[in-house]
Amino acid sequence: MDAQIFQTPAKLEVQEGSSFILMCNYSMQYRTYFWYHQRPGEPPSLTLSISSQEDQNSKGFVAKYLENGKESHLHRPKAQFQDSGSYFCAVDAQ
Description:
Largest sheet: 5 strands, antiparallel
Distance between the termini: 15 Å
Number of helices: 0
CATH topology: Immunoglobulin-like
CATH superfamily: Immunoglobulins
Keywords: Adaptive immunity, Immunity, Immunoglobulin domain, Receptor, Signal, T cell receptor
Pfam families: V-set
Protein name: Ig-like domain-containing protein
InterPro entries: Ig-like_dom (IPR007110), Ig-like_dom_sf (IPR036179), Ig-like_fold (IPR013783), Ig_V-set (IPR013106), TCR_variable_region (IPR051287)
GO biological process, one term: adaptive immune response
C-alpha cells in the first residue's frame, strides 16, 4: 500500500506577529518528521525535525508529533516577514 500524504492548509496568509499552524498527515506511521521552509529563489532548508511526542523548538517554530506517528504540526507563534515562502513536510520511511 502506498502512503497517502496530506499537508494543510495548501495556502495560508498571515499578518506579521500573528500565529499559524501547518499540519502534515500520513496514512502510515513514521518515526521522524522533517519540516522544510523554502524562500522564493532559494533551496529548501530544514526548519525542524521531530521523532517523539515531546515538542521540538527551533528558530521560533514549534513542532509536534501526534496521532501515533501519523501526524505532525508546525506552529509559529509569532510570524515574521522572513517566514514567507513554501513549507514542506517529509518523513523518514526506514
